[in-house]
């Protein structure tokens, strides 16, 4: 069954990209793979992350010993290169101002902003990694939501197989959050500076630290690969637009990044929770750039999304 799933993943998500089933590592989800990759990299690696960013990239770096002390005034960590991604730069970092690091964590569509990088942007990122001898860890967990032709995989960009590892998950494709199933792609062309294939080391890490996804999860993954259908985000986008708030994302991702100018994200979170009984996520939890934002998810049953929309309109109007 494992071999069938690896082949199905390669053929479904990486058709015509040259990805072999032998380069696909089935796992218990992207977050676990991020930690296993950190174990592979070790404590001496320098990293860069988008700001705002999914906390696991930063937290796993802290745990493995790659960072310095936290800066109390901003909440950021020393020794991490924070790549600012906001409305001012179309949520893509200015790579000309980004310092060289060994590892670049990049999520597209981004959690929490919902921005999906264009082909031209990813082309810049791949070229930047090539020039600096960096490895991109590309998180494509939300790629199935992309519907406007933007790349769903980093491997759509020529040259990416030599500089990028891609992690992904069934959690967002088919609601597998509790079932736990994902994968990581490590191309054979990805080499260390001494010419040794990264895939050989990652295979050793996986075989040592992970006993494999359950057969039940694997069977579910095989069954759901052809299933799609995502609509709730449109309802929420219209909700925030109707009350005069700017919401980013929601078109190529299940998340909305809602701006409350001049506000503290924790204060906004508390006010919405107390007045509507709706749980959002304070943007500050994703990095310094999230101070004035909250993240809203489109995951949920349609009737719950409609009820949430009704409550938000009433409170925010």
What does this structure look like?
This protein has 317 residues and is of the alpha/beta class. It contains ten helices and eleven strands. It has helices spanning 2-13, 30-41, 55-64, 119-132, 171-174, 198-209, 215-224, 232-242, 265-276, 302-316; strands at residues 24-27, 47-51, 80-84, 103-107, 135-139, 164-169, 182-185, 246-249, 255-259, 281-282, 293-297. The strands form two sheets. The chain has a seven-stranded mixed beta sheet, with helices on both faces. Strands 8-9-11-10 form a four-stranded antiparallel beta sheet. The radius of gyration is 19 Å and the shape is globular. The model is unreliable at 226-230 (pLDDT under 50).
**Order of SSEs, N→C?**
HEHEHEEHEEHEHHHEEHEEH
Roughly what fraction of the amino acids lie in strands? Answer: 15-25%
Parts with pLDDT < 50 across at least 5 consecutive residues = 226-230
User: Which shape, going by the Cα principal axes?
Assistant: globular
Helix count, DSSP H or I runs of 4 or more residues: 10
Mean pLDDT: 91
Q: Report the major sheet.
A: 7 strands, mixed
Tell me the strand order in the biggest sheet.
1-7-6-5-4-2-3
| Total number of strands | 11
Structural class: alpha/beta
In percent, how helical is the residue content?
A: 25-40%
Q: Kindly, what is the distance between the CA atoms of the first and last residues, rounded to a whole number of angstroms?
A: 53 Å
Instruction: Please give the radius of gyration in angstroms.
Output: 19 Å
């Amino acid at each position: 069954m494992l071999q069938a799933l690896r082949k199905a993943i390669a053929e479904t998500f990486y058709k015509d990209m040259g990805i072999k089933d032998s380069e696909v590592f089935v796992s218990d989800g992207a977050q676990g793979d991020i930690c296993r990759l950190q174990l592979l990299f070790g404590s001496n690696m320098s990293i860069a992350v988008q700001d705002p960013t999914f906390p696991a990239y930063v937290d796993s770096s802290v745990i493995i010993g790659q960072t310095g002390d936290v800066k109390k005034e901003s909440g950021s960590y020393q020794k991490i290169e924070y790549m600012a991604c906001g409305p001012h730069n179309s949520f893509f970092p200015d790579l000309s101002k980004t310092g060289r690091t060994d590892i670049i964590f990049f999520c597209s569509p981004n959690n929490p902003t919902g921005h999906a990088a264009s082909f031209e942007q990813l082309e810049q990122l791949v070229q930047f990694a090539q020039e600096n001898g960096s490895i991109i860890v590309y998180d494509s967990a939300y790629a199935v939501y992309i519907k406007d032709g933007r790349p769903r995989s980093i491997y759509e960009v020529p040259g990416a197989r030599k500089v990028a590892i891609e992690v992904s998950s069934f959690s967002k494709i088919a609601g597998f959050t509790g079932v736990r199933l994902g994968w990581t792609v490590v191309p054979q062309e990805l080499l260390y500076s001494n010419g040794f294939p990264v895939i050989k080391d990652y295979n050793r890490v996986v075989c040592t630290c992970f006993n494999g996804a359950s057969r039940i999860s694997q069977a579910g993954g095989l069954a759901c690969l052809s299933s799609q259908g995502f609509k709730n985000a449109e309802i929420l986008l219209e909700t925030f637009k109707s009350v005069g708030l700017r919401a980013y994302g929601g078109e190529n991702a299940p998340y909305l990044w809602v701006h409350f100018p001049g506000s503290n994200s924790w204060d906004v979170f508390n006010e919405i929770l107390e007045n509507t009984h709706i749980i959002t996520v304070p943007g500050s939890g994703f990095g310094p750039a999230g101070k004035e934002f909250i993240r809203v998810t489109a995951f949920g049953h349609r009737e719950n999304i409609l009820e949430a929309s009704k409550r938000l309109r009433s409170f925010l109007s």
